[in-house]
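Reminder to self: C-alpha cells first, then the designed residues, so the page reads top to bottom the way the pipeline ran.
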C-alpha cells in the first residue's frame, strides 16, 4: 500500500503522518509498515539538537496509526461500515517498552497483530524494529468512531 493509499485511510498529514508505506497485511490478522526516519523531521530540532532521537511517544503513535490501518482493512474485508465515515481513535496503551533509540537514517519497521475486538475496542500486539532489532513494543487499543461529514 503506497503513501497515497495510506492517506486515503488515515486523516493524519505532515508532520503527523507516521506511516510511509504498508509492506504487507492480512485483514483480521496483521499489518506491516515502514516509517523512514529523516533528519528533516521537525521534532529533531528540539529532541535533541546535539544527538537527535525520535521521541518514544511518536514511535507509539506510528504503531497506533498502523493499528488504525489494520482495523480499516479488516472492516473493509468483512464489508462492515462501508457506508459510514469512520475514524479509529487511539484509546489505550499497556506494557509499553522502549529498548533502544531511533535516530535519523533509521527505517522503522512496524508490525501490529490483531488480538481481539470486544465491544468495539480493538486490541493489538505492536512492535517496532530497526535492522531486525526490537526498539519498542506495546499492547495498543483503538476504537472506531463514526464521523459526520
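Designed residues (149 positions):
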Amino acid at each position: 500500500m503506497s503513501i497515497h493509499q495510506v492517506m486515503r485511510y488515515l486523516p493524519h498529514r505532515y508532520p503527523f503522518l507516521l506511516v510511509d508505506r504498508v509492506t504487507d497485511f492480512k485483514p483480521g490478522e496483521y499489518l506491516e509498515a515502514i516509517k523512514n526516519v529523516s533528519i528533516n523531521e521537525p521534532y529533531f530540532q528540539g529532541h535533541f539538537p546535539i544527538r537527535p532521537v525520535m521521541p518514544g511517544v511518536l514511535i507509539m503513535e506510528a504503531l497506533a496509526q498502523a493499528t488504525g490501518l489494520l482495523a480499516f482493512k479488516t472492516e473493509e474485508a468483512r464489508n462492515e461500515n462501508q457506508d459510514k465515515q469512520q475514524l479509529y481513535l487511539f484509546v489505550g496503551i499497556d506494557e509499553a517498552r522502549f529498548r533502544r533509540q531511533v535516530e535519523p537514517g533509521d527505517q522503522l519497521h512496524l508490525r501490529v497483530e490483531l488480538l481481539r475486538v470486544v465491544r468495539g475496542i480493538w486490541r493489538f500486539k505492536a512492535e517496532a524494529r530497526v535492522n531486525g532489532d526490537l526498539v519498542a513494543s506495546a499492547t495498543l487499543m483503538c476504537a472506531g468512531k463514526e464521523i459526520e461529514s
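The domain at 3-146 is CATH 3.10.129.10 (Thiol Ester Dehydrase; Chain A).
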